[in-house]
Amino acid sequence: MGLEIEIIFSDAHLLIVNKPAGILSIPDGYNPTLPHIRSILEPDFGRLYSLHRLDKETSGALILARDADTHRAMNLLFDSRLINKKYHCLVLGHPNWEDRDERTSLLVNGDRYHRTIANIVKGKPARTFFHVQERLQGVDLLMAQLFSGLTHQIRAHCNHLGIPILFDPLYTRSTFHSSMEKLEKLLASAGYPKRLMLHASQLSFTHPVTSHPIAISIPIPSDFACMLDLLK
What we know:
Layout: E1 6-10, E2 14-19, H1 37-45, E3 49-50, E4 59-65, H2 68-79, E5 84-92, E6 99-102, E7 106-107, E8 117-118, E9 128-135, E10 139-146, H3 153-160, H4 177-189, E11 198-206, E12 213-217, H5 222-231
Parallel strand pairs: 4-11
Antiparallel strand pairs: 1-2, 2-4, 3-4, 5-10, 5-11, 6-9, 7-8, 9-10, 11-12
């Protein structure tokens, strides 16, 4: 494949990588021959165990276990919400708040498009804390901290709040399409294709084997940074 995956942290038990946008976190259910993080890394690192996933077009910090015992221990940390995860995203529109502790319940696979949707009756508890870091031309840069881990949680909460993530084809309402087309052309003029503007920027937890604190911070990638510069 010739794909280079940046290794952020590695020891005998864990591997933390900077997943590029456009690469699957886990095997595709319909076409398992498509490349994914494990298939790219296992020739060099041996058997790896998936712990969580990032959407294909999301970039950033991804953790893999290197043995079955660590896999089980890390799953307990995930289940107990003891792994702190923060993301950066560019959203269309300007929320009328600087900080928001969003707790609307979400229903995974809740409509015919297989989207995660707000549903206070059938949905599961979901919590995302949002902070506006920068206001730009028609777009805001947000930090999003996850306190639960439902599929598409940030994307669904942003959609529910009326501020879809830039270049999100699944959750962006038609009223934003003209704005997205303009921004797509702007990004293409700088040599970058459009992609979901969501980046897993920070991870922190206590190593389940060594008990050492692990804190990972990954800067936003070049396409994300370029979009910011173009909007300033």
